[in-house]
Amino acid sequence: MILESLVSILESEGYIASTARTGKEAIAKTEKEFFNAMLIDIHLPDMTGIEVLSRIKETTPKMKKLVLTGFPETHTAIDAVNKKADAYLVKPFDPEILLDLIEQNLNQQEEELKYTQEKVLDYIKTRVRHLDEAENAEIKGAV
What we know:
Elements: H1 2-12, H2 23-32, E1 37-41, H3 49-56, E2 64-69, H4 74-82, E3 87-90, H5 95-142
Parallel strand pairs: 1-2, 2-3
């Protein structure tokens, strides 16, 4: 019921949602597809959301991971943050808060990508300039 409600809310806002009912299924999906964000419940039928975070952190470093729980506990929140969760939200929550949190995280992801692309472009420009300078020095040395 909650899963279907979340999908309905996300799709009504223009997001494309894919679901997984177990941690194993979620992990398998991240190995086959790229996702910008993942909502991860702490209590899953086959493992905890913390275990999911642990298993996907190396393969999905750019994906935003938002942890949801109906059983807020300090150690769980700390574990989630330590496993690179980008947000921790306690159920029940206002759907607008979730949507704002998703939007903030996706905007941050976009800025991180833009920054990364700018750094790569700067590196390429610098490298080309150094190669040109080295080539010009060789030409002058040969003359």
